[in-house]
Amino acid sequence: MMFPKGVTPDGTHGPFEMANVAAAVIDAKGTVVGWTGAAERLLGYGAAELLDRSAATLLAQPEDASRAAEVAGECGARESWVGLVGARHRDGRRLEVGLRVTAMSDTADRKAWLVTAIDVSKAPTWAVSVEVLEAFLTRSPLGMAVLSPDLRYVWMNDTLERYGGVPREERLGRRMSDSLPGLNTEALEAQMRRVLETGVPVIDYEYRGWTWADPHQEHAYSTSFFRLDDPDGRPLGVCYMGIDVTDRWRARERLALLSEASACIGGTLNVMRTAQELADFSVPRLADFVTVDLLEAVLHGEEPDSRPPDGTYPARRAGQQSIHEGCPESVIATGDPIAAPMSSPYIQSMVTGTSTLEPCLDSDTTPWVAEDPARAESIKEFGTPSAMWVPLAARGTVLGVATFIRTEHPQPFEEDDLLLAEELVSRAAVWVENARRYTREHAAALALQRSLLPQALNGGTAMEVASRYLPAGAREGVSGDWFDVIQLSGARVALVVGDVVGHGLNAAATMGRLRTAVQTLADMDLPPDELLAHLDDLVIRLTEENGGDDEPIATAVLGATCLYAVYDPVTQLCTMARAGHPPPAVVTPGGKVVFPDLPAGPPLGLGSLPFESAEISLPEGSLIALYTDGLIESSDQDIDVGLSRLSDVLAQSGLPPEELCSAVVNNLLTGPQTDDVALLLARPHALGADRVASWDLPTDPAIVASARELAVRQLLGWRLDDLVMTTELVVSELVTNAIRHGTGPVRLRMIRHDKLICEVSDASNTSPRMGHARTTDEGGRGLFLVAQLTRRWGTRYTRSGKIIWAEEDLPAQVGTKAGADGSTA
After folding, report:
1. How far is it, in rounded angstroms, from Cα 584 to Cα 604?
2. Which is nearest to 691 in space by CA: 757, 748, 747?
């Protein structure tokens, strides 16, 4: 407020320093004895109308008379009175006027009152009179101060005095740094100097620190600075107004902390790792030492019981972190079971699902600590802690407990800290629950996949095999890659590897269906190209069945790839066909690595192109590698580079298959794995002439006896005397069926492998059928007897006809010796 030159603001000025203030004089009897023109302009009455008349005429309402009497009484007790009164205008309307009543007297001791009035509706400066303004500034909830141009305090209000915790008289005339060592006073004074120089105010400047009002707790303040100028625009000083925004700052810090937690916790679907991430994040942001303990059921992916029947809560330490290296405060190692008294807040948080705050945990006065000597000793060593126990709960079920400890932090935990911890833990609990569910589903998928993949590969004595199975992202993951080794008739071995689109349970289930289908088709002794054609038809049917109801399964089936190879140890030939799958790698006995140029064939489920077979020779000392594309191709490696690297490793063909498998994986999978990998290595072994005997037979029934003699002679040469009787019958029945129901030429072949194999071939495509002879029939029991006396029997078709075969187990001693050294007994 500006005052005329030479006038000192002493409280008598304000709205009444104006020249047009209405004034009147009223004597002791209440009669108007003086009236000014300003009074006439305010109330409409001329002097002639009011002089020598009662002042009650000016009251707006009759009831205002009591108010006037109170004013008169107060004026009698003191020299003046200031306040608001309702007055009546000459036209009858009511006016709210501000009055100042001042007592007057003359030498004759006569009393009178000088009344000055102003229409408050037309003079807003009434609200900021000196008295009102002084009260407003002094008692404002904002901290206010005025500093001189050299930044020394010249005035401050009560709020700012309270904020600083230093009496006003100790701050006036001094700099800010003299009394506020806990604030960055250099930065604050820099702001004020800028305001003094530019005249541009600074609004909402935030800073943090401590003051003597609360020296152990950091507060946040928001302050605005503006310059004070004289009438000529010269700076008189700087004024600043500030407010404590600690609550706002803490709320913002909590939001920022929770936002940061979302980025740092729950990045994996691993229960233990998620618990450790919670502990890592909380230290030192919230506590000096944090532990996260989870129920054992949660660690196994199981649904925890809300109320365990035995009343115990078996849990394990899932994660812990400390400001001290190695977590010396901990009495339990990560992964170890938890043992705590039932009366402890730890167990009670599990039972009730509610948090507990202990601002000061004294081991000498807390009963449950006395029941736990290890924890009591830790408390004595590291100091009396402030502690919080917060349950990890999701969907109304407690999963574990997080413990927060402060031992070196200057402030004990308070309710705001508990609220923050609860919010943080509740979010972490959701991530732990998601990880638990994933663990359960992942375990189910792994169990399914393990049941669908071969438990052990057996190539017999005709082939050494080794394999590796590596799902993408984790070596214990779930994928759709698969492989198999299937023993066929005639000592032959089938090798198969396939790749289903996608990962997870759908891919694993699809892989199981395709593997089962291949095994079934392999038992039919189909050539590789025909087998893939049947498999392609099956995939098309599965796609049509699931296309509408289960799109993920249909997607996994459609586009699957497969490579099927059949190795014959007698001829040392391998017949292969592929459906969109990478070609195999073949290592020759000399160590040269080649990739046979097989017809590619379309992926399964397209049904557009035929499949073709190709035949290659695999002499003794060769090696063949079947694999999926994840081994040789990645986002940062071209397929040609992968094939070259695979060739370099496979050139070490002298290694045993198991060691060579490890070498391939270690050399090719050097970076993050982006796709599933299946690898199958096979080293074939030929069957020498000493293990195979064959005879061409004329189509004459009389030749059956000669066939029996040939077979018996060969068995005796192989020292398989125990199999003579059974083999005589088998040869007799098979040769008889070929002569009677087939067409020539007829051929008998015997193979001494890990089993004794008898084969009779003819040029007919007629399939033999096991008869059901009645007791009165003289024949029809031949194949029935063969089935009863042999391990298994069957038929396979060739380009020139069919082969009926039967297998017999070798005597235990002979089979063991032959299997061990590969020689005849």
Report:
1. 18
2. 757
DSSP state of 689: G
The partner residues of 697 in beta bridges, in order of sequence, read 746
Backbone phi and psi for residue 289, each to the nearest 5 degrees, phi listed first:
-150, 130
Distance CA 199, CA 192 (A): 10
Residues facing 42 on adjacent strands: none
Quote the tokens at residue 179. Answer: 């009394």
pLDDT at 373: 79
What the block records as the tokens of 499 is: 């790749």
Cβ pair 129, 84 in contact under 8 A: no
**Band of residue 99 on the pLDDT scale cut at 50, 70, 90:** confident
Query: Residue 137 has which token pair?
Result: 């500034």
**Contact indicator for 452, 469 with CB cutoff of 8 Å:** no
Give the Cα separation of 467 and 446 in Å (integer).
Answer: 18
Give me the sign of the Cα torsion angle 695, 699, 701, 702. Answer: negative
* More confident position, 806 or 557: 806
322, two tokens: 């400390």
C-alpha to C-alpha distance for 406 and 361, rounded to whole angstroms = 10
Q: Is 314 exposed, middle or buried (0-12, 13-18, 19+ CB in 10 A)?
A: middle
Tokens 């235990």 belong to: 812
Which of 189, 87, 82, 59 has the alpha carbon at shortest distance from 132? 82
Tokens of 27: 């004597």
Peptide bond just before 284 cis, omega within 30 deg: yes
Please give the order of strands across the beta sheet that includes 593-594.
Answer: 463-470, 677-684, 623-627, 585-587, 593-594
The two tokens of residue 117 are 């009035």
- Write the DSSP assignment of 746-790 as a string of letters: EEEEEEESSEEEEEEEES--PPP------TT-SS--HHHHHHHHS
The residue whose two tokens read 């998620």 is 274
The residue among 486, 503, 517 whose CA lies nearest residue 446 is 503
Neighbours of 95 (CB within 10 A): 19
Rg over CA atoms, the chain: 51
Alpha-carbon gap, residue 755 to 805, rounded angstroms: 12
Instruction: Name residues whose C-beta falls within 8 Å of residue 580's C-beta, 6 or more positions apart in sequence.
Output: 559, 561, 562, 600, 601, 602, 603, 604
Distance (Å, rounded) from C-alpha 509 to C-alpha 712? 49
Q: E strands, 459-503, where? A: 463-470, 479-487, 493-503
Other C-beta atoms closer than 10 Å to the C-beta of 391 total 24
pLDDT digits 0-9 by tens, 593-647: 999 989 988 998 887 788 999 999 999 999 999 999 888 887 677 788 889 999 9
What b/e string do you get for 545-565 counting C-beta neighbours within 10 Å, with b at 16 or more? ebeeeeebbbbbbbbbbbbbb
Tokens of 671: 């970076």
- CB-count exposure of residue 753 (10 Å: 0-12, 13-18, 19+): buried
SS3 128: helix
CB 565 within 8 A of CB 496: yes
How are strands ordered across the β-sheet holding 792-798? 692-697, 746-752, 755-762, 801-809, 792-798
The residue assigned the tokens 């003191």 is 78
The DSSP H or E segment spanning 386 is strand 386-394
Which amino acid is present at 414? E
Residue range 48-88, pLDDT digits in tens: 888 988 888 888 776 666 767 777 666 666 667 777 778 88
Q: How far is CA 346 from the centre of its chain?
A: 26
Q: Which of 405, 397, 476 shows the shortest CA–CA distance to 432?
A: 397
Quick one: CA dihedral 318, 324, 326, 328, positive or negative?
negative
The residue behind tokens 């290659």 is: 616
Q: Residue for token digits 């395709």?
A: 514
For 375, phi then psi, to 5°, come to -70, -40
**Distances in Å between the alpha carbon of 822 and those of 522, 568, 589, 694, 815?**
26, 17, 19, 21, 10
